[in-house]
Amino acid sequence: MAGLARWCYQHRIVVVVLWVVGLLGLGAASQSVGTAYNDSFALPGTESTKALDLLQGAFPDAAGESDTIVWHTDSGTVKDAAVQQRIEGMLGQVADRSDIASVASPYTEQGAGQISQDGKTAYATVTFKGSVEDEVDLDAVDSLISTAEKARTDGLDVELGGNAIQQATQAPPGSSEVYGLIAAAVILLIAFGSLLAMAIPLITAVLALAAGTTSIILLSHVMTIGTIAPTVAALIGLGVGIDYALFVVTRHRNGLMAGMSVEESTVRALNTSGRAVVFAGITVCIALLGMLVLNLNFLTGVGVAASIVVFFSVLTAITLLPSLLGFFGMRVLSRRERRRLAAEGPHEAHARGFWARWAGIVERRPRMLAAIAIALIAVLSIPTLSLRLGASDQGNDPADSTTRKAYDLLADGFGPGFNGPLQLVAELKSPSDTAALNELVGQVRKDPGVAAVVAVPTQPGAEVGIVQVIPTSSPQSEETSDLIKRLRDDVVPGVEDGTTMQVHVGGMTAIFDDFADVLTSKLPLFLGVIIALGFLLLTVAFRSLLVPLTAAVMNVLAAAASFGVIVAVFQWGWGAEALGIGAAGPVEAFLPVMMLAILFGLSMDYQVFLVSRMHEEWVHTGDNRRAVTVGQASTGRVITAAATIMIFVFGAFIFEGQRVIAEFGIGLSSAVFIDAFILRTLLVPALMHWFGRANWWIPKWLDRWLPHLTVEPADEPVAPPRPEEKREPVAVG
Questions:
Q1: 181 with 314, same domain?
Q2: CATH number of the domain where residue 603 is located
Q3: 207, 315 in Cβ contact below 8 A?
Q4: With 0-12 CB in 10 A as exposed, 13-18 as middle and 19+ as buried, what is 322?
Q5: Rounded-to-integer distance, Cα 13 and Cα 8, Å
Q6: How far is CA 319 from each of CA 295, 323, 370, 410, 642, rounded to the nearest angstrom?
């Protein structure tokens, strides 16, 4: 690392030019090919997937994306001549489109059930030629929306709902990154007191984000990457990019204040904190790529995309950053710091100030502070016990969106379950199976959770039968999930027995329910993999068993507490409406996996930076008390500053207007706060004081067997400073 840092410092113009050329090349390539994001995900072997496969095989034209056009009249009924004429003309234009397979109108004999009992609300089902993930052009969907909305008049409301409509009308990513950068700039300016020192982490983070996002665009052409992946990657990349540069710049500034030359301090900072950055980046990528063990394309794409941005964040920190430090010289210190250095001479940064005093308090009262921290975590974790995974429906879309308005119109006119119908798809293998299917319809009607059952007429000799089931509850409610389980476990098997018929419960609501079940079943494997790999890496780095064990436990505690916050806000609805993120509902099924991957990586960052400084002092002195105190005093300010930046960066995403992004924003910002201000500030140093020398114990046989990897090496001699640099510490201009 020292050699790379020195080369980048001495050839800083070359390094900057290479970065600029590389960014321009990536940008040009991504512009030329465009994006190919794909939100499809497969759940092989599940009931809902089997039902969908049967439908696609038997009715390929009817198996495409189905959305709805809903209209409501304030006076009269939807059958009034003026209303019917206007709507039928609009539906005719929609049906004539080349991308539409069919339009099921309520103004036909078969569509009588598509008009509400009071006659004021009706809907038409629009079926596309293909699925929204693969074949439906969202620009064409925009055109469809415009066609439908032209039918609106005073007293006649026309709205649209469905997956394709939601994706086409979803607000593009806002200015969250900009707000996060502004907040980061303010915090860095307060922390450093120097505009140039503030600018360096922002420059490296933005360039890393640019390189990462353009690479993700290119990668979307060779693997499945969902539309949410770039936003999640930006959320993570912006935070870690600023943090990594912040850690290195802080160590560099400390070196300058200790009397080193610019080159000597740069090399030392990269050879110590730079090593920790590389190690931390590796742990973040391992945690993110741990999602590959789930074998779900949707999550694999997110993990790979976020890992790419983290990789570029590390790359800028160890190549571009030392080059910028060479350009800026002593000006990374504020004028006041340079005057003090000239007047008082070199001094150690951790020898005075708040964090030195706080580290002393933790050293004197470790048991009491550890107990306080554990109590706080326990209280925050209580809501996690009621965590319910699922998928929020379009009733949680922004109140002014057409999908939310369509959802509300259908719920008011036909009941809440109408927005998430279930499908019973039956394989009919003998003539007697048709009678069995009719018997099943009767049994399903008796279930108290069913509002209506509609059997689609089948032709003689048909091999597939379809029954639509309307629940009494909304798609995202727990009652609907219970209904799906009853149908699969009790009702359907009770009729299937003794017949050749096989029935599968499907529909979008069932697909999301199965998605939650699949992820829940694979969660222990995922947790085991990332915890084991993190434990192994820290064991190799710090030659200790207690340090990695403590880190694993801290990660679990931080996760439990942050999920408690998510449950309270999104599932219980505490403050959700005030934040504009919809009503109470289940936590998105994929959120725990993605949150755990991100959180374990970020938590490991703080653990590495905190413990690596302690380990460095332990190697020098062999005194655990001094090692823990000096390590906390040295890193407390930078860790809390880095965490504050991350909290603002993540918090800015709450206002994106998308519920799932808001879940990430609140979950990650609360997790970082808990991790930095409770765990790393209170619990970890308190426990390490309590454990004493046992922190650094490892069996001799294991020490011999493990490879040697040093995160923060002992100080090494560096080349003598150049003559012009010897004068720089006294400059104050």
A1: yes
A2: 1.20.1640.10
A3: no
A4: buried
A5: 9
A6: 34, 7, 39, 57, 21
Cβ–Cβ under 8 Å, residues 214 and 205: no
Residue 97 structural domain: 66-129+135-169
Burial state string for 467-488 with b = 16 or more CB within 10 A and e = fewer than 16: bebbbbbbbbbeebbebbebbb
The answer on 362 and 322 residing in a single domain is no
Q: For residue range 686-724, what is the model confidence (pLDDT) as tens digits? A: 999 999 999 999 998 888 888 876 665 544 444 444 444
pLDDT tens digit sequence for 376-401: 999 999 999 998 888 777 877 777 88
- Name the token pair of 380: 């925050």
Q: Provide the residue type at 686 as one letter.
A: A
Domains identified in the chain, total number: 4
* pTM exceeds 0.85: no
Helix axes 2-10, 262-269, angle to 10 degrees: 140
Sequence-separated (6 or more) residues with CB below 8 Å from residue 509: 420, 421, 422, 471, 475, 480, 484
Domain CATH for 75 = 3.30.70.1150
Residues 617 and 675 in one domain: yes
Residues 323-365 have pLDDT tens digits of: 999 998 888 888 888 888 888 777 665 556 788 899 999 999 9
Helix (H) or strand (E) holding 103: strand 100-104
* Pairing state between β 389-390 and 587-588: parallel
Distance CA 495, CA 173 (A): 49
Q: What is the radius of gyration, based on Cα positions, of the chain?
A: 30
Residue 522 is assigned to a structural domain of this protein = yes
**Residue 471 parent element (H or E):** strand 464-471
